[in-house]
Write a structure and sequence with these properties.
6 helices; single chain
């Protein structure tokens, strides 16, 4: 077992912080801040926030493969944020926060997965 990378714990904290913040932002966005009037809230939450729950168990267990899947999932939220910035002027602040959090989640999860996997590689 190799020694851990010096920034491994930093990327772990950043991943969990971005993951939690993105989850809370999307929950608040679809329930309190700007709910869609013609879509039931439960359906909206299931479609938009539900996919974030899929890798949660592996992320909490520090599994690198779950962090890779989370990083790929963050790209979907990045695309959603970019389209929201250009399509709705009233939601630019929320969409900008989503873009920031998804980019932070993408990079921190990928670096964590890389450095965590390197710890267990034999030379």
């Amino acid at each position: 077992m190799n020694p851990p990378h010096p920034f491994l714990s930093v990327t772990r904290v950043l991943t969990l912080a971005a993951y939690s913040a993105l989850f809370l932002l999307l929950m608040a966005w679809n329930t309190v801040l700007a709910p869609k009037p013609n879509v039931p809230t439960a359906i909206s939450l299931l479609i938009i926030v539900g996919p974030l729950l899929l890798p949660m168990r592996g992320v909490l267990d520090r599994k690198p493969i779950s962090h890779i899947w989370l990083a790929l999932l963050a790209l979907v939220y990045f695309i959603f944020g970019v389209t929201s910035v250009y399509s709705d002027a009233e939601l630019r602040l929320l969409a900008g926060a989503e873009i920031f959090l998804s980019v932070m989640l993408f990079f921190s999860a990928l670096f964590f997965a890389r450095w965590e996997a390197q710890r267990f590689q034999t030379v």
